[in-house]
Amino acid sequence: MMHRQGPARMRKLEETTGAPVIGMESPRGVRDPSLGRLSAVLGGADLVVLFAKKKDFTLGFGKPFAKDCRVIETPEDIDAQASCEALIERAAGRAVPASNGWRAEVREALAYRPPEWARLSPSPGGPVHPVELCRAVQKLLDTSDAVLISDGGEFGQWSQACLSAPRRVINGPAGSIGAALPFAAAAKLARPGSRVMAMLGDGTFGFHMSEIDTAVRYKLDYVAVVGNDACWNAEHQIQLRAYGKARTHGLDLLPTRYGAVVAAMGGHGEDVARPAEVAPALERAARSGRPACVNVAIERLAAPAY
Question: Do residues 54 and 30 both lie within one domain?
Answer without folding.
Answer: yes
